[in-house]
Design brief:
By secondary structure, the protein is mainly α. Helices cover 80% and strands 0% of the residues. It contains four helices and no strands. The longest helix has 28 residues.
Length: 106
Amino acid sequence: MNYNTPLHRFRIVALLEGWSFLFLLFVAMPLKYIAHFPSPVKYAGWLHGVLFIAYAITLIEAWASRKWSFPKAALAMLVSFVPFGTFWFDKKIKSELEENSKDIKF
Protein backbone atom coordinates (compact mmCIF):
# COMPACT_ATOMS: atom_id res chain seq x y z
CA MET A 1 0.00 0.00 0.00
CA ASN A 2 1.30 3.42 -0.96
CA TYR A 3 1.06 5.81 1.98
CA ASN A 4 2.01 8.90 0.00
CA THR A 5 -1.24 9.36 -1.90
CA PRO A 6 -3.87 12.11 -1.79
CA LEU A 7 -6.36 9.63 -0.32
CA HIS A 8 -4.02 8.61 2.49
CA ARG A 9 -3.26 12.25 3.31
CA PHE A 10 -7.01 12.98 3.31
CA ARG A 11 -7.70 10.10 5.68
CA ILE A 12 -5.02 11.27 8.13
CA VAL A 13 -6.23 14.87 8.08
CA ALA A 14 -9.86 13.72 8.37
CA LEU A 15 -9.11 11.75 11.53
CA LEU A 16 -7.13 14.62 13.05
CA GLU A 17 -9.91 17.06 12.17
CA GLY A 18 -12.49 14.73 13.69
CA TRP A 19 -10.54 14.40 16.94
CA SER A 20 -10.02 18.16 17.15
CA PHE A 21 -13.76 18.73 16.66
CA LEU A 22 -14.62 16.26 19.42
CA PHE A 23 -12.06 17.84 21.76
CA LEU A 24 -13.51 21.27 21.04
CA LEU A 25 -17.10 20.14 21.63
CA PHE A 26 -16.70 17.78 24.57
CA VAL A 27 -13.67 19.14 26.45
CA ALA A 28 -12.91 22.75 25.58
CA MET A 29 -16.49 24.05 25.39
CA PRO A 30 -17.54 22.53 28.75
CA LEU A 31 -14.38 23.95 30.32
CA LYS A 32 -15.31 27.37 28.99
CA TYR A 33 -18.99 27.37 29.94
CA ILE A 34 -19.03 25.18 33.04
CA ALA A 35 -15.62 25.77 34.62
CA HIS A 36 -15.25 29.33 33.27
CA PHE A 37 -11.86 28.46 31.78
CA PRO A 38 -11.90 29.83 28.20
CA SER A 39 -8.29 29.24 27.12
CA PRO A 40 -8.80 25.71 25.73
CA VAL A 41 -11.47 27.00 23.33
CA LYS A 42 -9.10 29.62 21.99
CA TYR A 43 -6.33 27.15 21.20
CA ALA A 44 -8.47 24.14 20.28
CA GLY A 45 -10.62 26.36 18.07
CA TRP A 46 -7.55 27.70 16.28
CA LEU A 47 -6.16 24.19 15.77
CA HIS A 48 -9.53 22.89 14.59
CA GLY A 49 -9.80 25.78 12.11
CA VAL A 50 -6.40 24.99 10.61
CA LEU A 51 -7.27 21.29 10.41
CA PHE A 52 -10.64 22.09 8.82
CA ILE A 53 -8.91 24.09 6.06
CA ALA A 54 -6.44 21.22 5.57
CA TYR A 55 -9.43 18.85 5.43
CA ALA A 56 -11.04 20.87 2.64
CA ILE A 57 -7.79 21.03 0.65
CA THR A 58 -6.99 17.33 1.01
CA LEU A 59 -10.62 16.48 0.20
CA ILE A 60 -10.29 18.31 -3.12
CA GLU A 61 -7.05 16.45 -3.85
CA ALA A 62 -8.60 13.07 -2.98
CA TRP A 63 -11.74 13.89 -4.98
CA ALA A 64 -9.69 14.69 -8.06
CA SER A 65 -7.29 11.75 -7.76
CA ARG A 66 -9.97 9.14 -6.98
CA LYS A 67 -12.47 10.63 -9.45
CA TRP A 68 -15.23 10.65 -6.84
CA SER A 69 -18.68 11.82 -7.84
CA PHE A 70 -19.80 15.25 -6.70
CA PRO A 71 -22.36 13.77 -4.23
CA LYS A 72 -19.63 11.67 -2.59
CA ALA A 73 -17.32 14.68 -2.25
CA ALA A 74 -20.21 16.81 -0.95
CA LEU A 75 -21.02 14.11 1.61
CA ALA A 76 -17.38 14.11 2.72
CA MET A 77 -17.64 17.86 3.28
CA LEU A 78 -20.98 17.67 5.07
CA VAL A 79 -19.89 14.97 7.52
CA SER A 80 -17.12 17.24 8.77
CA PHE A 81 -19.84 19.35 10.42
CA VAL A 82 -21.25 16.36 12.35
CA PRO A 83 -19.58 14.95 15.46
CA PHE A 84 -18.03 11.57 14.59
CA GLY A 85 -18.85 12.20 10.90
CA THR A 86 -15.29 12.03 9.64
CA PHE A 87 -14.80 8.72 11.43
CA TRP A 88 -17.90 7.29 9.74
CA PHE A 89 -16.73 8.50 6.32
CA ASP A 90 -13.24 7.09 6.90
CA LYS A 91 -14.77 3.70 7.68
CA LYS A 92 -16.68 3.85 4.38
CA ILE A 93 -13.49 4.73 2.47
CA LYS A 94 -11.54 1.96 4.21
CA SER A 95 -14.14 -0.68 3.34
CA GLU A 96 -14.20 0.60 -0.26
CA LEU A 97 -10.42 0.30 -0.48
CA GLU A 98 -10.51 -3.22 0.95
CA GLU A 99 -13.13 -4.26 -1.61
CA ASN A 100 -11.05 -2.78 -4.43
CA SER A 101 -7.89 -4.54 -3.23
CA LYS A 102 -9.71 -7.89 -3.34
CA ASP A 103 -10.45 -7.33 -7.04
CA ILE A 104 -6.76 -6.96 -7.90
CA LYS A 105 -5.21 -10.27 -8.92
CA PHE A 106 -1.50 -10.92 -9.22
